[in-house]
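I am writing to request your help with a piece of structural work I have in hand. I set the record out below, with my sincere thanks for your time.
___
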Amino acid sequence: MALSEPRAKASIGSYLIIPVLAVCMALSYELFIFPNRFAPAGVGGIVTMVQYLFHFNAGYLNLLINVPILIAAWFLVDREFVIKSAIFTLVFSTAFLVLDKVDFTPFAYHTDNGTSNILAPVAAGTINGTLYGYAVRHHGSTGGTDVLAFSIRHYHPEMNPMWIGFTLNVIIAVASYFVYDFKFEPVICCIIYGFVNTSMANTVLKGYDAALKFEIITENPEGLAGELLAQLHHGVTLVSAEGAYTHNEKSLVICVVNKHQIADVQRLIQRYPGSFAYITSVNSTMGNFKRIK
């Protein structure tokens, strides 16, 4: 069945954004990671340490590591995921080769002048975590451990892919102590990078359109629902309920609102004595949900 025009455009757009993300991540390595002598998480950490030790360009090594992983994954996991991961890997590696010929000394952040060692992994982790999050949101990945983890999970569904990446990152952090002249600073930088990277990726994956869900048990559902609709302009769902202790008939009023409307909802609930409510966070909303400014 042919894709509708909006869906076709969205599909093409998701393929076009992957190379942009790859170039931005390669630039982040050149500006923050390579000049400060620490290894980031994942396969990027391996290629960074090898480049530091043997001056073997990270672009070539990144391809050498990822190609067999991607070929194996082609037969195991979703094809679209593999294709987008391959596009990212190819562009990322090519960007390394091109950017290696550019002198970034005037722009790169480095700690040789006594500035903070912590800022480099924080900056790189923030940027790369954001880029990784958007790559995953577009059903792709940055290659390496992501593809490997999901391929392993094909045979062992009970395994959590996060633990595979975590194990590799621990090995990289320990190895960086020996690679970078037996210093603890690269190990600490690797840990900081991994934490910030994961935090930012999770933020992007959860979305920025967070909301709050109110579930209110009340004996006057019509009055409360009417005020919620009229004053907050959000949809309301009514569900019949029964108290397990008293067996009295009640109603469950469900309403998802913007975060800044929490005080308005609480004020309305107080008008209906005997009502009980609890609030849960909504990471993202889809469909007909109004953004009330």
